[in-house]
Every structure is written in structure tokens, then in C-alpha cells.
Design goal:
Elements (H helix, E strand, L loop, with lengths): L1 H14 L6 H15 L1 H19 L7 H12 L1 H15 L2 H11 L2 H27 L1 H27 L6
Helix pairs in contact: 2-6, 3-4, 3-7, 4-5
Length: about 170
């Protein structure tokens, strides 16, 4: 009787440890990436980012195709999939990945995916504008910190140069 109890207890405890089968977790992740159309999302993001850059800096517009080629080489889904997969596998359990698949299969999930490149570009633009609006403040903060560091270095150099007096 005690042996049966220990087997059942061990099975219950092991079931609750949250250890996922790597193969099924990977399968859930692959399905998520397929539903999310990651290749298309990244391609659309590259397009949107390069177009936004060309609007902000018209002189760079003539280089749009070169920039797209470069970004597709290093930021395409094919290039980023291994690292992105590792991030997702670390961040989400198999059950959470399946929940995400379920969400992204809904009309709202599909809308979120289609809007994501546009939202990311707009969000980046907001951040860039905010930094530009306050660039003078940042320069002042950097100058103040540079002055503080310089004074500390001078103070430290003076302390090292001054011999200790024996008493």
C-alpha cells in the first residue's frame, strides 16, 4: 500500500513541476509563428520603417532599396527565427503558446497582427520626437555628468599624487 501511495504521489508531484516536453513546446511555437505570419510581419515592418525614414529624411529616399536589401538580409524572419524562437521558448510555456495561437486565430488577433508594423513605426516615431523635444535637457545632463566625472578623476589623481604623511 505504501509503495502505491509513493508512486501516485510522485506522479502527482512530477505533473505539477511544469516541465514541458521540448518537442511539443516547439510545435506550439511553430504554430504560433505560422498564425502570426512572422515572415510577412517582419517584411511589412521593414517596409514601414524604411518608408518612414525616407519621409523624415528625404535625402535618404534614394537609398531606400539598398536599406531594404540590407534589413532583409539581417532582420528577415529567416535571419531572426533562431534567436526569436529561443526568446519565446524561454518566456512562454507550451500552454501559454497555445493560448496565444488561439488568440491570434480570432478576428481581433488577426487585426492586431496586421496593425503591429504600423503601430511599431508610430510608436518609434513618438519616442524619437520625444527625445528630440528634450535633446537640450539631455545634453545638459550629459555635460553635468561629464563635469562631475572629471572632478572625481582630478580628485582621485590628486589623492594618488599626494604622499601620505607619516605621523
Amino acid at each position: 500500500m505504501n509503495k502505491t501511495f509513493l508512486v501516485v504521489l510522485t506522479a502527482v508531484l512530477l505533473a505539477g513541476t511544469g516541465r514541458a516536453d521540448p518537442a511539443t513546446q516547439q510545435a506550439a511555437l511553430d504554430e504560433l509563428f505560422q498564425v502570426m505570419e512572422m515572415d510577412k510581419v517582419l517584411d511589412a515592418t521593414i517596409e514601414a520603417q524604411v518608408e518612414a525614414m525616407a519621409r523624415r529624411q528625404p535625402q535618404m529616399g534614394i537609398y531606400s532599396e539598398v536599406m531594404k536589401k540590407f534589413f532583409r538580409k539581417y532582420l528577415s524572419w529567416e535571419a531572426l527565427k533562431p534567436d526569436t524562437s529561443a526568446l519565446y521558448l524561454k518566456a512562454f510555456t507550451e500552454e501559454e503558446l497555445r493560448d496565444l495561437v488561439t488568440f491570434y486565430k480570432t478576428p481581433t488577433g488577426q487585426k492586431a497582427l496586421k496593425k503591429m508594423p504600423e503601430l511599431m513605426t508610430a510608436g518609434a516615431k513618438i519616442g524619437q520626437q520625444r527625445v528630440q523635444e528634450h535633446a537640450d535637457e539631455l545634453r545638459e545632463m550629459i555635460d553635468a555628468e561629464a563635469t562631475r566625472i572629471k572632478l572625481l578623476q582630478e580628485e582621485s589623481a590628486t589623492t594618488l599624487e599626494t604622499p601620505a604623511t607619516a605621523e
